[in-house]
Amino acid sequence: MPVPWEALIPSALLVTMFGVTGTLANITFRAQNQWKPPRYHLERWDEMMIARDNRLTGHNRGQTSDPVIPSRAASS
Amino acid sequence: MSTTKEQQAVGPQPHVAELGTTSAPLKSAAFFIGAYCKEFNEDFMLCKAESRDPAHCLKEGRRVTRCATDLITKMRENCLEQFESHWACLEQNNHQYYRCRTVERPLNTCMFEKLGLVKTIPGTPEGRKQIHEIENPVLKRQQK
């Protein structure tokens, strides 16, 4: 259709699709990390601490500041 | 539960409950643990330097655990709100200290007033201000 803005229609489609892709990717990453941004640049120390968090709370990103250890995790 | 050969070798040990705090609160409290438990931590590291055998440093390890548990309990009693907000900020920011300075300052002042503990970074060059005390650092987070 010969209107001045006809090229903007597929451009808008591309922008929208990139946006949807990015949003869905962000949602999948956050969903695996208890709705927090995922951890990155992890060293062996960080991996060991994350495994310890898993033993203490049941999830890699679970956190608690309670110094009392739950009985199911009693041997760290 | 049957004892292993190593457990039989060292004999019965006093039971000290392991610290149940996870990584973000520990990272938030790290420098205060360093200030509060300095002697016990240094004893443990010197003991480990003698021998890496786990059975060699059980006593020093128990002392470290008890001291850290004691400090976390005190922190929660006195500065719970600032502590919780600081480690929640760290959880959102890949556990990087430089991204959570605005939340760290109230925690440092609370810890100093209530418990007299100061965060100092060992190895800072002489005459240089501590990195967490610089008002406008060059390397900072993207957003304000």
UniProtKB/TrEMBL annotation, chain A:
GO CC terms in record: mitochondrial inner membrane
A Pfam family annotated for this UniProt entry: MWFE
Membrane topology summary: Single-pass membrane protein
Region (Disordered): 54-76
InterPro entries attached to this UniProt entry: NADH_Ub_cplx-1_asu_su-1
Keywords: Electron transport, Membrane, Mitochondrion, Mitochondrion inner membrane, Respiratory chain, Transmembrane, Transmembrane helix, Transport
Localization terms from the record: Mitochondrion inner membrane
Nucleotide-binding keyword on record: no
Keyword Transmembrane assigned: yes
Domain of life: Eukaryota
Signal peptide annotation: none
Function: Accessory subunit of the mitochondrial membrane respiratory chain NADH dehydrogenase (Complex I), that is believed not to be involved in catalysis. Complex I functions in the transfer of electrons from NADH to the respiratory chain. The immediate electron acceptor for the enzyme is believed to be ubiquinone.
Assigned protein family: Belongs to the complex I NDUFA1 subunit family.
Record's protein name: NADH dehydrogenase [ubiquinone] 1 alpha subcomplex subunit 1
Organism: Roridomyces roridus
TrEMBL record, chain B:
Subcellular location: Mitochondrion inner membrane
Bilayer-crossing regions: none
GO biological process terms, semicolon-separated: mitochondrial electron transport, NADH to ubiquinone
Key words, A-Z: Disulfide bond, Electron transport, Membrane, Mitochondrion, Mitochondrion inner membrane, Repeat, Respiratory chain, Transport
Subcellular location, principal: mitochondrion
GO cellular component, one term: mitochondrial inner membrane
Family: Belongs to the complex I NDUFA8 subunit family.
Biological role: Accessory subunit of the mitochondrial membrane respiratory chain NADH dehydrogenase (Complex I), that is believed not to be involved in catalysis. Complex I functions in the transfer of electrons from NADH to the respiratory chain. The immediate electron acceptor for the enzyme is believed to be ubiquinone.
Record protein name field: NADH-ubiquinone oxidoreductase
Taxonomic classification: Eukaryota, Fungi, Dikarya, Basidiomycota, Agaricomycotina
